[in-house]
Amino acid sequence: MPGADRAHQHSAVVSVLSRAAKLMEGSEVTLLLENLNSRVNHIGTYLDATREGLDIVREVRSVHLRLLLDAYHALVMGEDLASEIGEDIDLVAHVQVADAPGRHEPGTGVLDWEAQLRILRNLGYTGYWGMEYLPQSDTITSLMMVEQIAARVENTQGHMG
Q1: Which residues pair with 94 in a beta bridge?
Q2: Digits of tens for pLDDT over the chain (161 positions)?
């Protein structure tokens, strides 16, 4: 609804996702809620904060709803992943990454992906990492860059999923 305040939008999202999660009961389906950045790619979007996304997941209180953490969006918004997520890492079902600026493969921009992946591992994230970027080079070369970053994290912490 145009012009709706944040509290109304928040309430509407919780209501719709609560109903959707109820429909998933008895299944193995998990709905994923993703916050987007409102600074570069999705100006004017409502859900642009990781913390609010986690709060919505917590309010819905269903095993069928989790957060899809697009770390690119969170970092573009200037978020500190450790403080935003904290002990709610169990509410994160999947993590996507891309570098900034340009949303290219990690290692091509200003974000320290080795440090960010390490933060998420230290919080307890053990899932997979989704690559959602526009490669600056051919796909194999770009994936090798990501693999090198992941290997440095793995060598200091154990296996990356």
Answers
A1: 68
A2: 567 788 999 999 999 999 999 999 999 999 999 999 888 888 888 899 999 999 999 999 999 999 999 999 999 999 999 999 999 999 999 999 999 999 999 989 999 989 999 999 999 999 988 999 999 989 999 899 888 888 888 776 544 44
Report yes or no: 85 and 124 within 8 Å, Cβ to Cβ.
Answer: no
Cα separation, 17 vs 56, whole angstroms: 9
The structure's pTM equals 0.88
Q: Residue 69, Cβ neighbours under 10 Å: how many?
A: 30
| 160, two tokens | 């990356």
Enzyme catalytic residues: 34, 132
69: three-class secondary structure by DSSP: strand
Domains along the sequence of the chain with CATH: 6-157 (3.20.20.150)
- Which residue type sits at 86? G
